[in-house]
Amino acid sequence: MLRGLNYSLNLLKAPPLSYVQSRQILLRDLKKKGTKTLLLDLDETLISSCSMRDNPDKILIPECSEKAPPIMIKIRPFAKEFLKIMKEHFEILVFTASTQAYAETIVKELDPEKKYISYILDRNFCLETKNGFYIKDLRIIKNRDLKNMTIVDNLVHSFGF
Question: Does residue 57 carry a catalytic annotation?
Answer without folding.
Answer: no
